[in-house]
Amino acid sequence: MQLFPCPFCGPRDETEFHYGGDAGNARPDGVDVPIERWADYLYLRTNPKGTAREIWVHMNCGEFFVMERDTVTHKVLSSTALGGEHAA
Description:
It comes from Mesorhizobium sangaii. The protein has about 90 residues and is mostly beta strands. It has one helix and seven strands, in the order βββαββββ.
């Protein structure tokens, strides 16, 4: 098991968290968005090897945050509340 740092509750078991998606993948807004743009949003990912910024939610407290982690080593580099507060 791995410990993930919740910016609100501190280190917790990874089973308490749910992945929310890539940070920075902005949802298209408006009703006149071309279908190709929706397909890009839903299905296309760069899937880099190395550092990734991801949205996570801690299911116990219900708070969303950005976690930066290495996709190769699984080491968590930082955990930041969406409001700007920071935890290591």
